[in-house]
Amino acid sequence: MTSMQTWQSADEVDNAIGKMADQLGALLAARAIDHPLMVGIHSGGVWVAERLHQRLGLQEPMGQLDISFYRDDFTRIGTHPQVRPSDLPVPVDDRHIVLVDDVLQTGRTIRAALNVLFDYGRPASVVLAILAGRDGRELPIEPDVVGLYAELEPGEQIKLTGPEPLTLKRGRVDPDSHQDGAAFDADPTARSGLDPSDQANSHTSGQASGQANGHSSAQANSDSNSHANDDGNGHANGHSSGAG
After folding, report:
1. HSE of 58 in the Cβ direction (CA atoms, 13 Å)?
2. Which end of the chain is more exposed for a tag (fewer CB within 10 A), N or C?
3. pTM more than 0.90
4. Is residue 143 a contact partner of residue 113, using CB atoms and an 8 Å limit?
5. 43-52: per-residue pLDDT in tens?
6. Environment class of residue 56 by beta-carbon count within 10 Å: exposed (0-12), middle (13-18) or buried (19+)?
7. Which of 3, 233, 217, 200 lies closest to 102 in space, CA to CA?
8. Burial zone of 179 (CB within 10 Å; 0-12 exposed, 13-18 middle, 19+ buried)
9. For the chain, which domains are there?
């Protein structure tokens, strides 16, 4: 049982995304990165990435990652995620990636996302952009770009709801429900259609499968100067994207 109330309205979330776009534009310019590849993590990260992609006027299509079966705490949290195939429109080798998620908490979602990315190739760097940062880190991961920070009471969680409009809710979540930033998209109308066994194969799709475990956060950080390894907060139909 949950008790969630609106914490950031649609206008406030839009302002936070505008702040992210300004920070990201300045960071990319400082690093002389002209053509970044933006990649959002399902589902909340994709919603945020779409808005950043538009604000920055990027021409190249953005990518999408589903990390459901890459989390190292998947069996422990016992979720039944809505499965969606990852989609990277171009090769990631030697590309500068902007990895986007909605809420950063434990860091486990980002770590899983990096493992997926490295299944597809070896990026030149990874910049981590997060809509809402909070405490609760379990891995040494920090974002390069943050829209806002939340100071929460013990037991409180944040969730991004969407896709239209985007709002952030906060409140207490029952310990038996999806927590730990591991809530996944439970919307039966969400993009899916793949059997879990098919999904596990879809991430590699001919890529270097097996690299996932070999590319830990420390290795990704050396490539990216990002603080990659994510956070974790699943990505649920907009109802559970935060907390991660």
Report:
1. 24
2. N
3. no
4. no
5. 899 999 999 9
6. middle
7. 233
8. buried
9. 2-224 (3.40.50.2020)
88 Cα distance to chain centroid: 14
Task: Examine the pLDDT at 220 and tell me if it is beyond 60.
Answer: no
Q: What are phi and psi of 22, to 5 degrees?
A: -65, -45
Assign 15 to helix, strand or coil: helix
Within 8 A by CB and 6+ apart from 121, the residues are: 91, 92, 93, 95, 207, 208
Residue with token string 């040494």:
140
CB 142 within 8 A of CB 107: no
Measuring CA to CA, which residue among 110, 115, 64 is closest to residue 90? 64
Q: For residue range 98-107, what is the model confidence (pLDDT) as tens digits?
A: 999 999 989 9
Q: What does the alpha-carbon distance between residue 7 and residue 203 come to, in Å, rounded to a whole number? A: 35
Q: Has residue 63 got a pLDDT over 70?
A: yes
How much of the chain exceeds pLDDT 70, in percent? 63
pLDDT of residue 83 exceeding 70, the answer is no
The answer to whether the beta carbons of residues 108 and 90 sit under 8 Å apart is: no
